[in-house]
Design brief:
118 residues
Length: 118
C-alpha cells in the first residue's frame, strides 16, 4: 500500500515538470496609432445623402410591389413588435433608477355627542 502511494505521489510530482520552453508572446502586428488622412475622417450621418428605395427603383410597378411587401411582411411586423416590447422592457427596468415618491392622507372624525357633555 505504501509503495503504491509513493509511486502515485512521485508520478504526480513528475507530471508537474515540463520540458517545454518558456512561452514568449510574439509582438502583435498592430500599428502604434490610428491611420490619418481624408479617407479615415469620421463622417456624420448628416453629411450622408438620404436615399430611399424609391430613389433607387424608379419603376412605379416595382415601387408598388415593394410597398405591398413592406405592408404585408409578417416577419417585419413581428420584428417591429419585438423592438417595441424590448423598448417597453427597457423603460420598465430604467424606472427602477428613478426616485420613488409616496404620499398618503388620513382623516378621522368622531362624534361623541352627548356622551361627554359637549
Amino acid at each position: 500500500m505504501m509503495r503504491k502511494m509513493i509511486l502515485g505521489v512521485s508520478l504526480a510530482a513528475l507530471s508537474a515538470c515540463s520540458m517545454a520552453p518558456k512561452y514568449v508572446r510574439p509582438e502583435l502586428p498592430v500599428p502604434q496609432g490610428w491611420p490619418t488622412g481624408d479617407a479615415y475622417l469620421r463622417r456624420s450621418e448628416a453629411s450622408l445623402p438620404s436615399v430611399t428605395y424609391r430613389d433607387v427603383f424608379r419603376d412605379p410597378r416595382l415601387q408598388t410591389i415593394i410597398a405591398q411587401a413592406l405592408v404585408n411582411n409578417r416577419d417585419l411586423r413581428i420584428a417591429a413588435a419585438n423592438i417595441e416590447s424590448a423598448r417597453a422592457q427597457y423603460r420598465i427596468q430604467r424606472a427602477e433608477l428613478l426616485p420613488e415618491v409616496a404620499a398618503s392622507a388620513d382623516f378621522q372624525r368622531r362624534d361623541f355627542g352627548e356622551q361627554f357633555g359637549t
